Amino acid sequence: MINNRTIIESNITGDRIVKLEHSSGLDIYVCEMQGFSTTEALFGTKYGSIDTIFKTKFDKDFITVPEGIAHFLEHKLFENQDSNVFELYAKTGATANAFTSFDKTCYLFSCSQNYEQSLRILLSFVQEPYFTQQSVDKEQGIIGQEIQMYKDNPSWKVFFNMLRGMYHNHPVKIDIAGTIESIAQIDAKLLYRCYNTFYNLHNMVLSIAGNVKEQEVIKIADELLKPCESIELQTIRPNEPDTIVKSEIVEHLPVGLPIFNLGFKSKPEQGYENLKAEIESYLMANTIADVSSPLYEGLLNDGLINSEFGVEIFNGDGFFSIIFGGESSNPKEVQRRIFEAIHDAKVNGLDKNLFDMIKKSTYGSFIRELNDVSAMANGVINAHLSGVKPFESIDILSKISYEDAMNCLLTRLDLDKAVLSIIE
């Protein structure tokens, strides 16, 4: 049963999405895309690797759980009492997957037919946990091997080494899968407790886009969603200083060419302000380091970078950083030149023509995503779990000025809060 139905429309493009507030407590977004043959759906919960300290209205105090349990739980949900979930999807012809990030866990499928059957599978298995201590013990070995594998992955290591150089206490510095020691503390009882806390439908969202009909989705939701009361979930994070831990971390692994991440720790934001800061930072950092910039051309001509060089904005609940990364025979010289380019931009201003070009290019990318089923389904769920509305990124981008980018440069690229992580 639907308690409330809202049409969300982009003032700029006219695209529309329907938001349904289901009586079970689940928010459902349906994007009917005319002329498309494929469908993608994501069933997600606001529960990621950083959510290790929490309480509900039934708890007297906050509980702390082992690192990696959100990822562990994601793995275990694919095994139910009767069969393997992937076998069920194989019968419908859908492709299924799941992922756990720092701040969310999502289960998804994509298909070109029979989306109703696949949606029934999705809503059923995520609501039907089945854990035994024997299966938990087996999974500890499997995930332990995964953790060891990532320890030998240079790209993974260079990133997490950078985070450990940035963050004193925030759990974002811990591998999403946890550690061998932390997952050894997980048992079936603890998995059920985390499941019943974070997989409450009031903490979840369903996003479905493409060749789909709203009334069909409502019918299936009414059949399968299990009503539940809000448990007034609260999560907290350890206090995090503004300072960094260490400005440089170097590790040795087998790589053909040294790889590096140069990250700038910055003030975290929430909701709308977080999205605005993310887009401003993306435009600003790319104006400095885009392939058309003097910095990029100089580094490339001198053989200090290759096509792997780029910029990433890494942000979420309690963390925000701007990262320049790639491969280089001399990462420290690349850092020096990036610092030099930042200083020059602060003194003389960003290249306005380049800023305008990057803004237009980014706007074009945002518009193209509206014609991509997967991008739409993912964009909607990401917006909801980040506390913003669908289409808000396009609206924000259209309003960002050159002056906004300059202010972002002056406040977010602090050379004293830079961390250089190198894998040699």
Tell me what you see in this structure.
This protein is of the alpha+beta class and 424 residues long. Helices cover 43% and strands 21% of the residues. It has helices spanning 69-77, 85-92, 115-126, 133-151, 154-166, 180-183, 188-198, 214-224, 271-289, 294-301, 331-348, 352-369, 373-385, 392-399, 402-412; strands spanning 2-9, 16-22, 27-32, 39-45, 53-55, 63-64, 95-100, 105-111, 204-210, 234-235, 248-251, 259-265, 310-316, 319-327, 418-423. The strands form three sheets. A seven-stranded mixed beta sheet has the order 1-2-3-9-4-8-7, sandwiched between helices. A five-stranded mixed beta sheet has the order 11-15-12-14-13, sandwiched between helices. A three-stranded antiparallel beta sheet has the order 6-5-10, with no helix packed on it.
What is the beta-strand fraction? 15-25%
Round the Cα radius of gyration to an integer and report it. Answer: 23 Å
Largest sheet: 7 strands, mixed
Count of extended strands: 15
Assembly state (oligomeric)? single chain
Stretches where pLDDT is under 50 for at least 5 consecutive residues are none
Order of helices and strands: EEEEEEHHEEHHHHHEHEEEHHEEHHHHHE
Rounded mean pLDDT is 95
From the helix content, strand content and strand pairing, which structural class follows? alpha+beta
